[in-house]
Amino acid sequence: MKKYILIFIFVALGFALSNDIDVNKKPEPTSASDFSFPEYQTKILSNGIKLFVIEDKEQPTVYFRILLNGGSSMDGEKIGVSELTSDMLSKGTKKRKAFAISSTIDGLGASFSISSGPDNITGYGGGLKKHINSILDVVSDYILNPIFPKEEFEKLINQKIAELQYEKSNPSSIAA
Q1: Phi-psi category of residue 54: left, alpha or beta, with phi > 0 → left and psi -120 to 50 → alpha
Q2: Low-confidence ranges of the chain (pLDDT < 70)
Q3: What confidence score (pLDDT) does residue 80 get?
Q4: How far apart are the first and last CA of the chain?
Q5: In terms of Cα–Cα distance, which of 108, 132, 107, 113 is closest to 55?
Q6: 125 in helix, strand or coil?
Q7: DSSP assignment letter at 61
Q8: CA quadruple 16, 21, 26, 29: dihedral sign
Q9: What confidence score (pLDDT) does residue 58 get?
Q10: pTM to 2 decimal places
Q11: What's the distance, CA 115 to chain centroid?
Q12: Which residue, 166, 174, 82, is CA-closest to 119?
């Protein structure tokens, strides 16, 4: 084994010494390329949702982002409501339980996540173009028809309490 390690070291050393690279010379910068924002279409759906579409036919994938008015700036005195709301959106709808939502999205090889920021609740998703109708069916169901099941809410509260306890024991969280 030592024999192979020594051979490897000598080969690597020989390769490094054979290159005519001056490590003291700064590399030349690459040429700047022009940037132009891609063509896009704007559509307003019958329900008032504004849709921006940027098409790229090189990949068989679709990615999207959904912005909902809200966010932590709208919490008022009940801090954390928007975060709990965004976390609860995927926990069940009138047609699907939480497990059915996640297994459908995962089964399609897709992704969708939702989070709360200061000014809005944002959903990010994507998957193969051929599955877009199925993906959007699940996503629209979970945005338009959430049921906020009590048992899922209780699990979420326990998770949030555990997160807070961890943060209280984490020196970097305390310092922040």
Answers
A1: beta
A2: 1-4, 6-21
A3: 87
A4: 49
A5: 132
A6: strand
A7: E
A8: negative
A9: 84
A10: 0.66
A11: 9
A12: 82
